[in-house]
Amino acid sequence: MRQSEMLVPTLREAPAEADAAGHRWLLRSGMIRQLAAGIYSYLPLGRRILLNVERIVREEMDRAGCQEVLLPIMQPAELWEESGRYTQYGPELMRLKDRHAREFALGPTHEEVVTALARDEVNSYRKLPFTLYQIGTKFRDERRPRFGLLRGREFIMKDAYSFASDWEELDRTYQAMNTAYSRILERCGLEYIRVEADAGTIGGQGETHEFMALADVGEDTIVTCKHCGYAANLEKAGYETSGSSVNNSGQAEVSAVPTTADKADGNAEGDTLVRIQTPGVRTINELSAFVGEDAQNMIKTLLYQADGQLVAALVRGDHEVNDIALKQVLGAEELILADETALAGHPKLTVGFLGPIGLDLPIVVDADVAVMEHAITGANEVDVHYSNVRPGKDFALDNVGRIRFAAEGDGCPTCGESLVFTKGIEVGHIFKLGTKYSDAMGASFLDRNGRQCAPVMGCYGIGVSRLMAAIAEQYAGEEGIRWPATVAPYHVHLIPMSWKDEQQRELTLQLEQQLIDAGYSVLVDDRDERPGVKFKDSELIGLPVQVVIGRGAAEGQVEFGSHVLAAQGESKRISMTAQEAVIQVKEQFTVRN
Amino acid sequence: MRQSEMLVPTLREAPAEADAAGHRWLLRSGMIRQLAAGIYSYLPLGRRILLNVERIVREEMDRAGCQEVLLPIMQPAELWEESGRYTQYGPELMRLKDRHAREFALGPTHEEVVTALARDEVNSYRKLPFTLYQIGTKFRDERRPRFGLLRGREFIMKDAYSFASDWEELDRTYQAMNTAYSRILERCGLEYIRVEADAGTIGGQGETHEFMALADVGEDTIVTCKHCGYAANLEKAGYETSGSSVNNSGQAEVSAVPTTADKADGNAEGDTLVRIQTPGVRTINELSAFVGEDAQNMIKTLLYQADGQLVAALVRGDHEVNDIALKQVLGAEELILADETALAGHPKLTVGFLGPIGLDLPIVVDADVAVMEHAITGANEVDVHYSNVRPGKDFALDNVGRIRFAAEGDGCPTCGESLVFTKGIEVGHIFKLGTKYSDAMGASFLDRNGRQCAPVMGCYGIGVSRLMAAIAEQYAGEEGIRWPATVAPYHVHLIPMSWKDEQQRELTLQLEQQLIDAGYSVLVDDRDERPGVKFKDSELIGLPVQVVIGRGAAEGQVEFGSHVLAAQGESKRISMTAQEAVIQVKEQFTVRN
Fold first, then answer.
1. Would you say B161 and B201 are in contact if contact means Cβ atoms under 8 Å apart?
2. Is B130 close to A96, i.e. CB distance below 8 A?
3. At what angle do helices A464-474 and A21-28 cross, to 10 degrees?
4. Given B39, B67, B71, which is nearest A7 (Cβ)?
5. What is the mean pLDDT of residues A109-135?
6. Cis peptide before B129 (omega within 30 of 0)
7. Is Ligase set as a keyword in this record (chains A, B) (predicted)?
8. A:B CB pairs within 8 Å
9. DSSP letters of B487-533?
């Protein structure tokens, strides 16, 4: 490909919108452009990367025995009402009406469509199991789109759906997808962790894992244990797999983590509650500064609406409530932080000075709060707190559960060693859905014995455009992104210093042909630009190999640079003959024809 | 691929929605399913066909030097307002609002997005020319979606946009695209005609051609001349190319076609108008029956609103008004048939008995009416017509033009021989847009001399899903679609009569491996079904070659059938050895590895 014929609008400066390193380079190297918040155009180089990622995903899906389909973007609202998600999905679901005022959703995911398909077309165990997948555009009206392709409103995704006769069959598919996802991420050159996760909006009755590409810009906190290899996302960390740690009565096992609160403090106040005047002290930080004690000695009281009912949740001052865990403990369908409207009916609640003592609301107590001995908390009275509070004595422990997020240094739920936090980008997610959708939408089949059963489903998503963004983040360097050869828009950048020089041009064309014949893709910078401009652009574009054809062309000499050499600490280009350059390319990576 | 693992829900009967032969077979062979009116899911076999068509399109675009991009589906309404199309496109444009109530269009086409891109990124002649293309999902809210994939509301299209410094550069790209489109249609195995066309909603200042796949179900009428090869769509037929036949004054050259009206009839009435009582006779057909004369002797008067003003258009009784031609003659922006509201202000107009004599409206007269001598027309009085009407004498010929559609038997505008009508499916369309969009949206570049110029654009669309549907129409047979090898979901169907029979299974697997090694794709019917079911499904699926492995397996004998043999009149399968079968496949078509 001739660079002069290609639209590659490189930029000297990144636009103001760029809020992550990889994103800045994607913009500066002319690979993508923003059309509207969270909505991007892929320009020729960017499109080639995306196609490479798509190809890898497709090959691995096919290898895993999945069948490719293409399901509509526009989905009738009726289907989403059947599953109950038309309301549940909230404002993130893009909605529109057609000319007959019929309502549609723009698919953020395709469980409804695919379950309806199975309901209509699959009626016997003999047609099971199977897995369908598609690669296509998805829509999600993010409240706050950011980091370019990482959190967009229109994005490319591979989604897959499996249908099985029973859980055992599902397990096999789940394992196959697990392997496929690992292979995809490895082929994309990504450093990643597979973590236990929570099912979120998709819902599900079984196991679920996320594949996290490590990156500082990642919006997910990954909790890992260096000792035993345990890994989970923050929502899930500390809870046993498959949602089994919280039983139906809402009673969770009490955490084995020893509390760090001061247990042996036999101070003057003894066991008696002490009222403290705390004028204007409303936050944990303010309280901590005011009384000169650590936040871990305080009890934080938060009010939620659980299915419309007001409840209080207690966690330690240094902990945060995990909504998902709280929701499970309460067995609630919907859980939101109580807003002003909800509080309006309760004039006695003194926000800023809330506490469990004398509070006339259902209370859920975090396990770490339950074992505190001399805690400080609000007195439900303006400008007053209590110290020397003892849970179980000063307020009842009727509903104790693990309702907080893990914190760094917590004990690993598997081996007890200290947990460590890292940041990750969720690039893939696999779920055992079970019969949630088949039940809701009435999909069924006859088993071997003629009994009507609901197919056991799984669903598997991988963000194709997000993979591209994650690679950009991990491979962002000082001068641009150093694209891995598997996804790079071209393998080799040929850079003649002067395209008008006949010897340089000849040698460039010879090299191009030899490389193409060997199965490599080649970009030739044939532009009439100064060498400095060409080098700068070449670094921005970041192909795995650069070959500069300059004055040495007369003697068949070129300058060779590559990511591999750079990784070996060789920052400069190396002089060699054109033939050696071709050999170098072949040694550095092989491509399939 | 094992058929037992694949979702191929064949049907014994076509669903009621199926309104075209190819569409019926696509449904019956389990390749597509309707999700909502004009919105389809592609099941595994259908998806493979679509991917094959996509591959052909992509290869030809790349060969023509185009660069692939991916532009957003969601497009800010502001862009469409800049081009003026947000209103103009009408209800066919799907619209939605995001969570911030910002308006978006779902792209039916991408002129706005791509012109905005060029406006931002291309500022010098040195970056021109270039052509961008994409393959993706488009939306058009058709009033009446039908014929399955032929006229859908969500469909797959390849659209391309070229930017040039001047018209000459555009000409070269236009020719390259013309060649690419011809190659695509040939590789898809389609019988097609390239016709002169009208620019329609996209608008444009220059040449435009459509590529029509011939099919009875086609919604377009193609006008051709067997003698000289002239071909145009009906809207365009008889008008010279590039809109030059109608000059700015609205005066078109008078058609050279001789009128077939009776010119020499010196009957009793002579030149005097005759009033005829015609009680309740309102249509041309009724009038023709009533007076016993051909429709070609009558003048039909139609009322239009041209930019809000009421005008009358006169054509012969056997002709139809061509709205686009009338619009051009009037120089009108908007033209619609006058509705009741428009007529409410003109109580004297007696619909059903309209005629030019004494009509107090601007009148446009078709050239064929202008040369009539003894015509019959309405008298603008209920239940009365005039006969013996002579245009020019009985009413003025102030505005004469060619405002009717061509009719079969008309003289060819190039050679004068008789025109013939056929039906076609518009699968491709290439336009010279000129500077319509660059002007409207303020895209410009500096030319060699530092002058600011508007890039001269072209746009080029080919319906990818529509190509699939057109192939289905042309290759629909008695038992299914006989897919051409270039797009067939698999090349060879291996049909063991009994998968449980070890010899049959062994031979099948051997054949499969040999064919795969030779670069062919293979579908193996390993299902536990009766041979009759397998044969029926095999015909529905319609792969180019079927090899039946039955009792002869023990002796290495198989039965070989193929589209090629069928086309040679050989309807039965031929017995041969498995090795001969492999050789036959290789002789019938080659594939690229």
1. no
2. no
3. 100
4. B67
5. 97
6. yes
7. yes
8. 159
9. T-S-SEEEEES-TTSHHHHHHHHHHHHHHHHTT--EEE---S--HHH
pLDDT: which is higher, B80 or A569: B80
- Contact predicate A471/A165, CB 8 Å: no
Dist CA A513 CA A533 (whole Å): 25
The answer to whether the CB of B46 falls within 8 A of the CB of B7 is: no
Q: Tell me the residue ranges of DSSP E strands in A29-124.
A: 32-36, 39-42, 67-68, 74-76, 94-97, 103-106
Query: From the CB of residue A409, how many other CB atoms can be counted at a distance below 10 Å?
Result: 11
Distances (CA, A) of B401 to B249, B256, B322: 11, 12, 11
Overall residue count recorded for chain A in this entry: 593
Instruction: Mark B467-497 as b/e (b = at least 16 C-beta within 10 Å).
Output: bbbbbbbbbbeeebbbbbbbbbbbbbbbbbb
The H-or-E segment that residue B303 falls in is: strand B299-306
- Between helices A578-588 and A502-517, what is the axis angle to 10°? 30
Q: Which residue in A196, A187, A193, A276 sits closest to A232, CA to CA? A: A196
Q: How far apart are CA A193 and CA A418, in angstroms?
A: 18
Tell me the chain B residues in contact with residue A121 when contact means C-beta distances shorter than 8 Å: 7, 9, 30, 33
**Which residues of chain B make contact with A69, given a CB cutoff of 8 A?**
7, 41-44, 47
The pLDDT of residue B409 is 87
Task: Choose among B421, B1, B10, B510: nearest CA to B221.
Answer: B421
Which chain B residues touch A40 with a CB distance below 8 Å? 72
Q: Do B130 and A51 touch (CB under 8 A)?
A: no
List chain B residues with CB under 8 Å of A104: 36
d(C-alpha B237, C-alpha B405), whole Å: 7
- pLDDT tens, residue by residue, B50-81: 999 999 999 999 999 999 999 999 999 999 99
Residue A182 has pLDDT above 60, yes or no: yes
- Mind listing the domains of chain B with CATH numbers? 20-210+427-473 (3.30.930.10), 274-401 (3.90.960.10), 492-588 (3.40.50.800)
Chain A residue with CA closest to B489: the answer is A68
Q: In the predicted model, is pLDDT for residue A245 greater than 60?
A: no
Please compute Rg for chain A using Cα positions: 29
Distance CA A444, CA A123 (A): 6
The C-alpha atoms of residue B20 and residue B24 are separated, in whole angstroms, by: 6
Which chain B residue shows the shortest CA-CA distance from A77? B36
Instruction: State the best of B3, B51, B67 to mutate against chain A, taking most chain A CBs within 10 Å.
Output: B67
Give the tens place of pLDDT for each residue, A17-67.
Answer: 788 999 999 999 999 999 999 999 999 999 999 999 999 999 999 999 999
Find chain A residues with C-beta within 8 A of B6's C-beta: 67, 130
pLDDT at A206: 75
Q: What is the pLDDT of residues B297-314, one digit of tens each?
A: 999 999 999 988 999 999
Quote the mean pLDDT of chain B: 90
pLDDT band at B203 (very low <50, low <70, confident <90, very high): low
Select the residue of A48, A72, A121 nearest B9 (Cβ to Cβ).
A121
The radius of gyration of chain B's CA atoms, rounded to the nearest angstrom, is 29
Residue A74 is nearest to which of B74, B99, B154, comparing CB atoms?
B154
Q: Give the ipTM.
A: 0.86
Tell me if B95 and A96 make a contact (CB, 8 A cut-off): yes
Whether residue A246 has pLDDT greater than 70: no
Q: Where are the alpha helices (DSSP H) in B29-110?
A: 44-63, 77-83, 85-88
Residues of B in contact with A44 (CB under 8 A): 67-69, 132
For residues A376 and A386, what is the distance between their CA atoms, to the nearest angstrom?
A: 6
Alpha-carbon distance of B401 to B98, in angstroms, equals 48
Distance CA B526, CA B549 (A): 11
